[in-house]
Amino acid sequence: QVQLVESGGGLAQAGGSLRLSCAASGRTFSNYRMGWFRQAPEKEREFVATISWRGGSTYYADSVKGRFTVSRDIAKNAVYLQMNSLQPEDTAVYYCASKLDRGSYYIDYAYWGPGTQVTVSP
């Protein structure tokens, strides 16, 4: 059974940084893609970033490109989201997700973590 557990959320000031972690367990993820999504209050959940487990290819939403960096540690079965230059509009619940690495990189994620809150004050 796949389990994804996020950590590292919290409160940051505008311009600050946070690093989210996602601990993955329950299977071998070598053929999987790991993604980060977020959902702000009263908004739809949106794609943030993704990385392939095997080759490390990455994609980012335009809104975070140049500020956020997604990475993985294969030995630790962990995925990270380094968030720099945070802005109040980055406030949301952030979710880690995974899917087989095929098809579109931003949809059809099968497994989800419970999420972690990120709040950015002005």
Keywords, separated by commas or semicolons:
mainly beta, four-stranded antiparallel β-sheet, 52% strand, globular, seven-stranded mixed β-sheet, 122 residues
Short structural description:
The protein has 122 residues and is mainly β. The chain is 0% helix and 52% strand.
Describe how the helices and strands are arranged:
Elements: E1 3-7, E2 10-13, E3 18-25, E4 32-39, E5 46-52, E6 58-60, E7 68-73, E8 78-83, E9 92-100, E10 111-112, E11 116-121
Parallel strand pairs: 2-11
Antiparallel strand pairs: 1-3, 3-8, 4-5, 4-9, 5-6, 7-8, 9-10, 9-11
- Structural class, from secondary structure content? mainly beta
Largest sheet: 7 strands, mixed
Oligomer: single chain
Beta-strand content bin: over 45%
Mean pLDDT: 96
Task: List low-pLDDT spans.
Answer: none
Cα distance, first to last residue?
Answer: 40 Å
What order do the SSEs take from the amino end to the carboxyl end, as H and E?
EEEEEEEEEEE
Count of DSSP helices? 0
What would the principal axes of the Cα set say about the shape? globular
Global Rg:
13 Å
Please give the number of β-strands: 11
Helical amount among residues, as a percent range? under 10%
